[in-house]
Amino acid sequence: MSAVLPPETVAVATPRRRWTSRFSEEHLFLLLAVLIGVLSGLAVVCFRIAIEAAHIWLFGSGVHPTPQRLVIVPVVTGLVVAVLVVHLFPRVRGSGVNQTKAALYIYDGYIPFRTAIGKFICSALAIGGGQSLGPEDPSLQIGASIASLLGRKLQLSRERLRLIAPVGAAAGLAAAFNAPISAVLFVIEEVVGRWSAGIFGSVVLSAVSSVVVARWFLGSEPLFRIPAVQFFRPAELLAYAVLGVVGAFASVVFSRAIGYLRPRLKALPQTQYFQPAVAGLLIGLIGYAGAPQVMGAGYDVMDQAMHGHFTWQLLGMLAGLKILSTVLSFTSGTPGGMFAPTLFIGAMLGGAVGGAERVFFSHLTGSVGTYALVGMGVLFAGFLRAPMTSVFMVLEVSGDYSIILPVLVSNTIAYLIARNLQPVPIFDMLSRQDGVDLPSMEEEREAAIYRVEDAMRALDVPVVHGEVRVETALQRVIESGANLALVDDWSGGWGTITRGALQQAVLQRHDAVVRELLSLKRMEPLFPDNTLEVAMQRIHDWPFLPVVHRADPRQVIGIISLQDVLGAYRKTN
Amino acid sequence: MGDSPNPVATPASERGALTSRGGTLSVVIVISVALFVLTHFVNAAYQRERAALAEHWLKTGDTDFAAGNAASAVDSYRAALTYDSTNPDTTLKLAEALARAGQQRQATSYLLTLLQEEPGNGPVNLALARLATKEQDSSDAVRYYHGAIYGGWSGQGQAMRRQARLELVDFLLNHNAVTNARSELIGLTADLPRDPAVIADVADRFVRAGDDENALRLYRDVIGLRKATPAIWSAAGMSAFRLADYRVAEEYLARAKGAGDNSVAASLDTARAVLELDPFARGLPTSRRIERLRRVLDIAAARAEVCKPPQPSTSISPAAAQMVDQLDTEKEASLLRQQLSSSRELDPDVTDAVMRFVLRVEQSGGQCPAASSQDSAATLIARNRQAEER
What we know:
The complex is a heterodimer.
Chain A (H helix, E strand, L loop, with lengths): L6 H53 L7 H21 L9 H9 L7 H16 L7 H18 L4 H20 L2 H13 L4 H22 L18 H30 L8 H14 L10 H8 L5 H20 L7 H22 L7 H17 L2 H12 L5 H18 L4 H8 L7 H6 L5 H4 L7 E3 L4 H11 L3 E6 L3 E6 H10 L23 H8 L5 E4 L7 E5 L1 H11 L1
Parallel strand pairs in A: 1-2
Antiparallel strand pairs in A: 2-3, 4-5
Helix pairs in contact in A: 1-4, 1-5, 1-6, 1-8, 2-4, 2-10, 3-6, 4-5, 5-6, 6-7, 6-8, 7-8, 7-15, 9-12, 9-13, 9-14, 9-16, 9-17, 10-12, 11-13, 12-13, 13-14, 14-15, 14-16, 15-16, 20-21
Chain B lengths: L10 H56 L3 H14 L4 H13 L3 H14 L4 H13 L3 H13 L6 H18 L3 H12 L6 H13 L3 H13 L5 H13 L3 H10 L6 H16 L8 H22 L10 H10 L2 H12 L6 H16 L9 H17 L1
């Protein structure tokens, strides 16, 4: 169209069109976030129905399946899932969190839609068939896959397309968890790794719309009923601290077991048809031997644990068996998530620790349910290594703020100990085992930040004001022995002037003031707490930049040059 | 919706992409609506299936519970809850089954969860109160009973509130909190239905709380409804008897003969004897009063005679000897008889002396044979006189 327009029309229309285009893209992205949320919500509703229907169909509707079914069903579904994974959906192995991260960082937001279909079918069969896995991570990947497809169909820019997978991931996770805050936090904390208005707004919109859809169909009830939370005495924080320590060790055992077994099983490609079935058989035998609670996602068992259905010894045993069965299921390559097993192990462990503590300290007021709830957060912090999400997740599912202190104490302890004992978080470990080096959000969070104050040097050039006559300025430069001066031009900012320029100005017009010699371009000063990255962005061709005081921007406390920045980086390496 | 490599938008293709976006977006919205409708039908069918399963397991649980098989009922109710987790009635039933199966802690936990959702839920409070009663936890029991009494009930609210209060009264009486029990009973009488069984129930608890006055009032209400059974007549008569209203007691107890209770017959005889012997009955001439007083004295003297221990041996202790002296009342009785005979007017001092004599004889009756109705009547007359004087 522009070809037929007169040049002046094009000159007017181009910036407008650009603005319109940018406007459209930004708003389209937000609208798309809502659509992604709706579609992800619908997919997760169907996914949950599929899992439950598969469970009822395979195990019967009662609470105690027959012993034959307990053993046979996981084996048969394991075989079917293996065939599907090997022949039709090879990308659906694992949880889905790393695949979403890979889409963001490697594949420009591309996740094949076939992955969503495969994840849906295989995970529903596996979880409904008793494998010790959860529906949350698959929901996350299904959401990301739907988002990626929509982004591609709408021909979004590369930047937007990259960001769209996390938007879908948040939608899927929020709908599966019925917890939008936790989902948003997890995606920001573990997938995206940074807070920016654009991504945050889209993630929130998609999470909220997916939860609205999920609640529309499935109701707003939580996945398990939370008993009345009891926390009366601050002294009891010690008891919760013990839970944090125990949870940290359990997290490390869980994580190391996966890290040990997964590559070894992966190295046996000829057995991939049988690995899920063997895992299913072992889990079925655990169920047959008297612990069917470890099969499936286990939300009903968490509900029972929180209502004191089990003794503390049984809770401890269930925690251990769940670690074993989840390790078997996950490392066998069966598609399914680790969120639900993590919560399960945390709940059982929390209940066990709380129950045991009450045996020895009968004055403790916290109910087993309260400890189980805190335990969920502990494992989330220790194993999944998402400390912020772990805190908000417990608050969101319990809806009770009074539990905040125990949660903060135990989660922090679990996180710190687990991080110390197992420096590589589980998702990073899995991606490295797969030969993909995705950015570690934890490492990024913990990375040292170098600031201007670490690289700046003392002021070794004279500072002259812009109103000073060039003669005076030259004299001060000569006295200081420097080749240039930093000019503080009150009206226009900071600049520099060389000794040569001053000498020449004196010869030409000795009554001129320094400001008249300055170029229009001025320096952007730095503050000591600015990062070196900011310094490098501002330094351009300047020989150095002044570092000024935040409370008094006219007070120069040092200068920094590109060499200083590089020197600082070199020193740290 | 097939897979395709990433078509990264380039500046050249941007305009074309923008123009096609509107159409694509429209298609996506239409697909979303279609999927929404499809999901609605799928979900509706699945929810119907869940509802049917929940109902099936609820019924199975009810059958198990009614058959006394609490453990099976627990499993069935759990299954029902799996398919209808928001149903508080199922949760309540599960808690009750758990409590019956001896799993108090779990039952309490489920009930507390329900209570958290609805603090004023009457049935939940009542169930918690019953658990607290079993656990002998007084403060929780009273708190939850009050929660049940003042909480919300769907249907049968009045009856269930009354039931809760009656259980609270029983709990208080079992823990000797008689004053509190009376307060609750008085609260209960405010809105009693015209149901004889209910009124009698409350009256019985007034008796247990030692409040015969209110008990008798309620028994009379039952009698007024013309629904009195021998048991009601008996209970009413006994209350009147304890209240020293022997005429009413005699009337009611006479009608309660069918109750088959020996104590009723004994009380009836005693009441009749009191009516016959009471020298303080209203409207009696002085001569009759003196005569009755003399009869009471004779009965007490005769009682003292049969209660007299054998002659003390030399080795008797000083305390026993003192008791024997006290029981040697023949002389005293004779003196009192003389005083009564010598006077045409009733001397209050002599009357008091006779009453003290009767009480002393009764109090020293450790080795006496069972008292006759006349003996008991004499004692009651003396006691009532003493109480009046106080």
